[in-house]
From TrEMBL:
Cross-referenced PANTHER family: BLUE COPPER PROTEIN, OS11G0428800 PROTEIN
Keyword list, A-Z: Copper, Disulfide bond, Glycoprotein, Membrane, Metal-binding, Transmembrane, Transmembrane helix
GO molecular function, one term: metal ion binding
Residues annotated as domain Phytocyanin: 32-134
Keyword Metal-binding carried by entry: yes
Organism: Papaver somniferum (Opium poppy)
One term under GO cellular component: plasma membrane
Transmembrane intervals: 12-30
Keyword Hydrolase: no
InterPro entries associated with the record: BlueCu_1_BS, Cupredoxin, Phytocyanin-like, Phytocyanin_dom
Origin: domain of life: Eukaryota
The protein's name: Phytocyanin domain-containing protein
């Protein structure tokens, strides 16, 4: 009887250990969702407010940027560094524009550039660059 109880305790302990490690793994590898601009959302700011917002946060590859705005008022386009500086969008980039008003974009390692491509919006400050670190391996 004692051997049976000890065996059952060993099996239960093993399963609890597996569940514990699984929970830690899910927690460590969980990506984060960042709401761009916080409560203010994605709308006309001062020229640098979105970059200031981004500088005060830590981003990892696999995290998501959540752009919230009034549908039809703006859009989001991931661009390259030149497109960011010049507020210009290539045909390929333009085809990937999103404009639902609640857009989630997965971040990649490196510098990610985003603009609103509606006329005059980028020049008025509707742009942001985000420095993204690679996801930490644990």
């Amino acid at each position: 009887m004692k051997a049976s109880v000890a065996s059952n305790l060993a099996v239960i302990s093993f399963y609890l250990l597996i569940i514990g490690f699984s929970s830690i793994s899910v927690y460590v590898n969980a990506s984060r969702n960042h709401i761009v601009g916080g409560d203010r959302g994605w709308r006309f700011p001062s020229k640098s407010s979105y970059n200031i917002w981004a500088l005060h946060r830590s981003f990892a590859a696999g995290d998501t940027l959540h752009f919230k705005y009034s549908r039809g008022a703006h859009n989001i386009v991931r661009v390259d560094a030149a497109g960011y500086r010049k507020c210009k969008v290539s045909a390929t980039e333009s085809a990937k524009a999103v404009s639902s008003g609640s857009d989630k974009i997965l971040l990649k390692k490196g510098i990610n550039y985003f603009i609103c491509s509606l006329p005059g919006h980028c020049a008025a400050g509707m742009k942001m660059k985000v420095h993204v670190k690679k996801k930490k391996a644990h």
